[in-house]
TrEMBL record:
Source organism: marine sediment metagenome
SUPFAM superfamilies according to UniProt: UDP-Glycosyltransferase/glycogen phosphorylase (SSF53756)
Organism lineage: unclassified sequences, metagenomes, ecological metagenomes
Keyword hit for Amino-acid biosynthesis: no
GO MF annotation terms: glycosyltransferase activity
Protein name: Glycosyl transferase family 1 domain-containing protein
Keywords: Glycosyltransferase, Transferase
Length: 79
């Protein structure tokens, strides 16, 4: 849920490929292998060095979460 919350706030997300996070983040964030500090550091510095990309990923995440993770969508999947 924290990844979705960050995306809803227009914040770029860097996450691991473990668990359900890739399903939430999709192509609207950066996914790195679990237990790979080098990949995580590269992703973080990549966004810090490229604020335009960070802004774009933040906006793409916002759009993704508003499209896929709404109460209406949750109800449709439940029924």
């Amino acid at each position: 849920i924290p990844a979705g919350e960050a995306m809803a706030c227009d914040v770029p997300v860097i996450s691991t490929t473990g668990g359900a996070l890739p399903e939430v983040v999709g192509d609207a964030g950066i996914l790195v292998p679990p237990a790979d500090p080098g990949a995580l550091a590269k992703a973080i510095t990549g966004l810090l060095d490229n604020p335009d990309r960070a802004e774009k990923l933040g906006f793409e995440g916002y759009k993704r979460v508003r499209k896929l993770f709404t109460w209406k969508k949750a109800a449709e999947k439940t029924v």
